[in-house]
Amino acid sequence: MAGAIPAGGFGSTPSLKAAGYRSPNEKLNIASIGAGGRAADDINGCAPTENIVAFADPDSTRAAAMFKRFEKAPRYADFRKMLDKEGKNIDAVIIAIPDFMHGTAAMWCMERGKHVYVEKPLTRTIWEARRLKEAAAKYGVATQMGNQHVSEEGTRQVCEIIWSGEIGNVTEVHAWTDRPIWPQGMTELPKEEKVPETLDWDSWMGIQDMRPYSSAYVPFNWRGSTGAAGKILARVRWATN
Predict the structure, then answer these.
(1) 113: alpha, beta or left, given left = phi > 0 and alpha = psi -120 to 50?
(2) What is 1-7+16-175+185-241's CATH topology?
(3) Which residues contact 109 (CB under 8 A, 6 or more apart)?
């Protein structure tokens, strides 16, 4: 508060807004399609500063931690129902569900004027990617694909150092990775198992042709770097205001 006193007083910043103060009414209302695993990390990247207002996750066991943490937020198994019933209270949506549903869920959100943060891979096909690009322009929404490390400050600083010429003319760069660290490919279809009572298998399958449930399909247990979804907040707030 002291920093918000005009220069004529004992502070130097002329307003609370300039001092960094934000009214609760200025926070973004963010919904998440997906609440466990990767989605949980993205939610944590937004939760410190924004409102988490709704969830859509067909696997209530995987989503349990986020459901408990944000117990007042409405929960749905089908993201379409969430958008229909909670849409007026949603500014932006995190999409962190199985890869084959990324493009479909993103389009549903963008058509309803919702800004989106979509985990990689953004789409299954080039056609889907082009459709999302067109939709972003048509509906005037801020979008970002979840290339986590590209969003982090360290990467930006490295780029600025190279672009500035401070370390000379860079002609060669070495990079390496330990990925993938999760199982790759299936040589045969897994055996059918009983669908857990806590899983809406039909909603999980989404646009894919129905097939028997197997724990080999779900859950996908990898969790990556944390907090990346928070990087889009400034862009969403700009577009919202």
Answers:
(1) left
(2) Rossmann fold (3.40.50)
(3) 33, 83, 93, 95, 116
